[in-house]
Amino acid sequence: MIRLYTDRLQISYGNRLIVKDMKIEIPDKKITTIIGSNGCGKSTLLKAITRIIPHQSGRIILDGESILKQDTKELAKKMAILPQSPESPAGLTVGELVSYGRYPYQKGFGRLTKKDLEVINWALEVTKTADFKHQPVNALSGGQRQRVWIAMALAQETDIIFLDEPTTYLDMAHQLEVLELLQQLNKEQGRTIVMVLHDINQAARFADYIIALKDGQIIKAGTSDEVIDCNVLKEVFQIDAVIGRDPRTDKPICITYNLIKGEEKSEISLTGDH
């Protein structure tokens, strides 16, 4: 089932075309990961789909209707986004931050209802951040803060959650912790997860569907076996990769790689020395 898709989507910054005639389909209740080199349009795509930035042409369709025609609060009940390296105001407590996720449901003076408080406490419990409820967000470790931001996204009670590089600046253990939490939310609650990741091995391990971008266009989309491929990685990242199998997950894994451009430069340099 496809609830969310784009058709001939084009996004520009000034005169520069970032995303070109993009047609993607986001599988419902699956984990989709977007990979690609810096500046290829990954974050721009997420911002456009969630209506943070405008798109110049084409369509973004959710539940059969353009997102441009949907009420902002109603759209916020369907999609939540965790931006790259989010920051909270100084002194804001964990509970206060998570309560912001209830904004789409508030009316009048915006007082939290009994239902709001129940959802906030549930989101804190699921993300294992309930013990920090009354602590300032900026007093937490990087991994704890990231879980708190995910709790805020969960408090929105959306079916679809977008995350832009949710593992940035985290150590290996906390990266795994965050990704396993997202996988748990997908499997146990059927949440559709769409995230940008830099680590292709993490993408292969956790994603049901991978979209590989280069210069604002899709090079390959499909399963990890279809995308984590020597030829695809060569075109997307300009690397000569050796692909094996993860002994624990049986997913493809990049064992090692060389920079293709670096090798070419080295050969040119050596030739020039003789």
TrEMBL record:
Name of protein: Iron-enterobactin transporter ATP-binding protein
Domain ABC transporter residues, every copy: 4-240
Biological source species: Aeribacillus pallidus
GO BP annotations, alphabetical order: iron ion transport
Record carries keyword Ion transport: yes
Subcellular location: Cell membrane
Lineage summary: Bacteria, Bacillati, Bacillota, Bacilli, Bacillales
InterPro entries: AAA+_ATPase, ABC_transporter-like_ATP-bd, ABC_transporter-like_CS, P-loop_NTPase, Siderophore_ABC-ATPase
Keyword presence, Zinc: no
SMART domains recorded: AAA
Major subcellular site: membrane
Pfam families in UniProt: ABC_tran (PF00005)
GO cellular component: plasma membrane
Topology within the bilayer: Peripheral membrane protein
Keywords: ATP-binding, Cell membrane, Ion transport, Iron, Iron transport, Membrane, Nucleotide-binding, Transport
PANTHER family, sorted: IRON(3+)-HYDROXAMATE IMPORT ATP-BINDING PROTEIN FHUC (PTHR42771)
GO molecular-function terms, A-Z: ATP binding; ATP hydrolysis activity
